[in-house]
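Is this the right way to post C-alpha cells for a design question? Let me know if I should format differently. Anyway, here goes:
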C-alpha cells in the first residue's frame, strides 16, 4: 500500500519510506493513499474476538503487502501485551482504559507498534537508526519503553529542564542502554525545534540514519485505530448508536478513530474534548482555524496550540467544514470544571478519572445531555491518575496510591546528558553516541 502526503506535492511512497522518514519531504504528514474497508463478516465477528485478534485483522488490512504475516502477528502481540478494559462508570457511559501499558499512558500503543515496525524496516541496514523524540512528558517515556534494547536503534529524548513532573523525569532518564535522555536548558518548543533541525540537517543525514518518533509518524496512527473496533465489539449488542469522546491535544488519538470509521466502523459521532487549548472546538463553532500559542493546564499532555493531526483530519474531510461538523462535536473545559468532575465522579461512582480522562468524560456527558436520541458514550481514559499525583491529591484532598509499575521508576538511577539550547551541542551528542 502506498502513502501520500497531506500537502499533496510529493508522489506516493511505500510504507518503509513513510515510517523511516516520519515527515514527508514537502512538510506534509503521510496518510494511506486509500483506506481499506473491512467486510461485514469482520464486524459481525467482533464481539467474539480478542483485542489481539481484532488488532491483527486491522493491521493486516493496512500492512499485509509490506510486512510478512508472521512478523505482523508478532508485532501486534508485542504491542498489545496489556489489557484495554472497557469499564462501565454509569448508565450509558463507559471508560476505555488505555493506560495499562508499561508507562501507563495511551501513547504506549502507538509507540510500541512504531518501534517494532521501525526495527523491522531497519533489520538489514548496516547503519544504526537514530530516533529523535522531543517530549513534554508522556511521549518520551512511551517511545523509550518501546525501543529499549531493540538492536540497531539508538533513541535520543529531548526534554525541557524542570518542566516535566518528577515521576515523568524518572520515566525518561532511568532506561540506560540504547536510550539517551538529553535535558535541554529551554522549553518544550526549543526541544521540538532542535529535533526538527536535526532531522533536516544535511550533514547529519549524510552520516547517520535519522528519524522522528513524534506523533506525525504514520506508524503511531494506525495502531490507534485498533481499540475503537474492540470497544464497539463489546457494546454492539446494546444496539444503540455509539459515541466516542476523545481527550485531544495533537488529535492523533481522534484521527485513529476517524481511520476506524473510514474502514467501516459505525460510529455515530466523535466528541473532540479539549482543555483551554480549544483551536479545534473553535474551528467547529466559527469555521475559522486559528492556531495559537499553547496555554498551560492541569491536563498538560493536551496543551497544544497547533495540533499536528489537523492536516490529516482536513485531508479526510476534503477540507470541508460541513463534513467536519457532521462527524465531530467540539467541547472545551476549564481546569476548574475538570477538577469538579474528578471530585464528582469519584464521590458518585467511585471511579478515579485522571485530568485528561476527566475532560473526555465531561465531553461524553455533555453530548448525551444535549442529544435527543438514546446513545452509548465511550470516553478514552488516556493516563493513570497517579501520573498526575500532585494535581490529583490537590483536587481530592486525599492521598492516592502509586502503582508498583510507576514506583519502580522512582527507585532507579537517573542518567542525564545536560545540554544548552544549542544545535551544535546536539550534533556532537548525536554523533558521539
Ligand atoms: C498525548 C496525550 C493526549 C492527547 O492525545 P493526542 O493524540 O495528542 O490528541 C491525551 N491524554 C494523554 C494522557 C496523553 O498523553
Amino acid at each position: 500500500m502506498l502513502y501520500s502526503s497531506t500537502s499533496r506535492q510529493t508522489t506516493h511512497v511505500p510504507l518503509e519510506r513513510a515510517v523511516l522518514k516520519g515527515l514527508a519531504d514537502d512538510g506534509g504528514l503521510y496518510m494511506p493513499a486509500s483506506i481499506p474497508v473491512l467486510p461485514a463478516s469482520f464486524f459481525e465477528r467482533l464481539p467474539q474476538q480478542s483485542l489481539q485478534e481484532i488488532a491483527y485483522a486491522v493491521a493486516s488490512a493496512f500492512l499485509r503487502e509490506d510486512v510478512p504475516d508472521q512478523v505482523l502477528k508478532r508485532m501486534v502481540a508485542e504491542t498489545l501485551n496489556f489489557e484495554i478494559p472497557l469499564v462501565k462508570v454509569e448508565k450509558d457511559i463507559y471508560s476505555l482504559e488505555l493506560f495499562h501499558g508499561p508507562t501507563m499512558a495511551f501513547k504506549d500503543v502507538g509507540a510500541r507498534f512504531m518501534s517494532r515496525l521501525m526495527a523491522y524496516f531497519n533489520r538489514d541496514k548496516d547503519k544504526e537508526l537514530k530516533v529523535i523524540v522531543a517530549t513534554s512528558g508522556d511521549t518520551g517515556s512511551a517511545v523509550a519503553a518501546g525501543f529499549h534494547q531493540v538492536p540497531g536503534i539508538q533513541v535520543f529524548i529531548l526534554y525541557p529542564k524542570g518542566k516535566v513532573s518528577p515521576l515523568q523525569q524518572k520515566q525518561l532518564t532511568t532506561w540506560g542502554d540504547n536510550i539517551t535522555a538529553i535535558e535541554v536548558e529551554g522549553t518544550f518548543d526549543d526541544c521540538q525545534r532542535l529535533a526538527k533541525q536535526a532531522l533536516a540537517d544535511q550533514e547529519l543525514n549524510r552520516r547517520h540514519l535519522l528519524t522522528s518518533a513524534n506523533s506525525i509518524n504514520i506508524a503511531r496512527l494506525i495502531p490507534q485505530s485498533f481499540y475503537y473496533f474492540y470497544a464497539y465489539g463489546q457494546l454492539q449488542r446494546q444496539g444503540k448508536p455509539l459515541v466516542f469522546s476523545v481527550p485531544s491535544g495533537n488529535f492523533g488519538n481522534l484521527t485513529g478513530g476517524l481511520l476506524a470509521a473510514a474502514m467501516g466502523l459505525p460510529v455515530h459521532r466523535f466528541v473532540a474534548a479539549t482543555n483551554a487549548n480549544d483551536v479545534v472546538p473553535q474551528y467547529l463553532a466559527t469555521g475559522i482555524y486559528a492556531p495559537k500559542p499553547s496555554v498551560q493546564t492541569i491536563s498538560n499532555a493536551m496543551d497544544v496550540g497547533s495540533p499536528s493531526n489537523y492536516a490529516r483530519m482536513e485531508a479526510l474531510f476534503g477540507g470541508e467544514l460541513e463534513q467536519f461538523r457532521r462527524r465531530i462535536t467540539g467541547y472545551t473545559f476549564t481546569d476548574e470544571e475538570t477538577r469538579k468532575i474528578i471530585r464528582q465522579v469519584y464521590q458518585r461512582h467511585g471511579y478515579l478519572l485522571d485530568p485528561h480522562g476527566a475532560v473526555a468524560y465531561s465531553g461524553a456527558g455533555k453530548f448525551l445531555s444535549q442529544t435527543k436520541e438514546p446513545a452509548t458514550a465511550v470516553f478514552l481514559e488516556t493516563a493513570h491518575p497517579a501520573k498526575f499525583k500532585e494535581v490529583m491529591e490537590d483536587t481530592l484532598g486525599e492521598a492516592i496510591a502509586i502503582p508498583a509499575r510507576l514506583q519502580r521508576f522512582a527507585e532507579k538511577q537517573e542518567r542525564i546528558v545536560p545540554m544548552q539550547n544549542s544545535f551544535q551541542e546536539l550534533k556532537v551528542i548525536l554523533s558521539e553516541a
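Format looks fine. Someone answered above. Worth noting: The chain has a mean pLDDT of 93. Residues 5 and 30 are 5 Å apart (CA to CA).
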